[in-house]
Request: fold
Amino acid sequence: SAVISQKPSRDICQRGTSLTIQCQVDSQVTMMFWYRQQPGQSLTLIATANQGSEATYESGFVIDKFPISRPNLTFSTLTVSNMSPEDSSIYLCSVLAADRDTQYFGPGTRLTVL
Amino acid sequence: GEDVEQSLFLSVREGDSSVINCTYTDSSSTYLYWYKQEPGAGLQLLTYIFSNMDMKQDQRLTVLLNKKDKHLSLRIADTQTGDSAIYFCAERDSSASKIIFGSGTRLSIRP
Reply:
């Protein structure tokens, strides 16, 4: 299995500011994903982080609001830009294992926007 | 589009078996997963099953798949207080990179 860490684990931010979340994996993985889990809800895929190219965003999510970087096969960042209280959620990094059968999740970053 | 549905709540007595049910609509689903989320934590992959299997057992966990009815279940034998969590059913098509999640079932254990 892959061991995934995220930083920060939680943060409280002011409206209008931006927060960058880091995701580090202990092994090289081809596919990395960013999910959002709004309070009391299930998980929604924001985007697939592609190494060496622009991320692939799902419907309803745009690069200006959620810029993503993926400089190598073990690291990615998600920025939540110009935050509003509606962005208060848990943001989770996820990777597809080398066998391409299993998908693992990081511990999540709990974001509260005031 | 694809959809995965679960009941929202389940309450069982400690020591009994818990059965969490899930239905999905995508007939091309290849992988079906069960994840566990404890309060304030991320998602833990519990088990998964390929669509060409009917059953998979792993210690206290038994997964049953009825592909004809697109129905998946997770049975937890001898349910303990540590099993209290939200359980998410999820499915993925082999050609797709993304997983579609159900709404999650909150399992509570009563003494």
